[in-house]
Amino acid sequence: MITKLSHTSFFVLDQDKAYEFYVNKLGFKVHTDVKMDNGFRWLTVTAPDQPDLEIVLFPATNNGFDDETNKALKLPFPKLLAPFRWMISKKTVGRSCTGLLKICNK
């Protein structure tokens, strides 16, 4: 039985824009922001009140996956919110994260 998560991934089209949104608009904290030798950027953020859960802002393109997989990752934005809605409903993320839904549903 899974009792705790340490990482989860959100596929993003632009890591810089995702950084701007999660860190500067929602107040998330940057946990890791490292560029690998091959140019891949490993970017994780945490909610202020849940620093032990890292959210990987994973690029939906140029990520080493094949074209078919990358195409499947480009889902409409409301579908990308589904995991966050689930985490909020199960109270697995803190209250500050509910601001994401308010901002994105406008």
CATH class: Alpha Beta
Number of helices: 4
Rg calculated over all Cα atoms: 14 Å
Placed side by side, the strands forming the largest sheet appear as: 1-4-3-2
The number of E-state strands comes to: 4
**Helix share, percent:** 25-40%
Class derived from helix and strand content? alpha+beta
How many discrete domains?
Answer: 1
Mean pLDDT rating: 77
Measured between the Cα atoms of the first and last residue, the distance is 37 Å
Largest sheet: 4 strands, mixed
CATH architecture grouping: Roll
Summarize the topology.
Blueprint: E1 7-12, H1 15-25, E2 29-35, E3 41-47, E4 50-59, H2 67-73, H3 77-89, H4 98-104
Parallel strand pairs: 1-4
Antiparallel strand pairs: 2-3, 3-4
Describe this structure in words.
The chain has a four-stranded mixed sheet, covered by helices on one side. Helix content is 36%, strand content 28%. Strand 2 (29-35) and strand 3 form a beta hairpin. The chain has four helices and four strands. It has one domain: 2,3-Dihydroxybiphenyl 1,2-Dioxygenase, domain 1 (Roll), CATH 3.10.180. The longest helix has 13 residues, at 77-89. The protein has 106 residues and is α+β, with helices and mostly antiparallel strands. It starts with 6 loop residues before the first strand and ends with a helix.
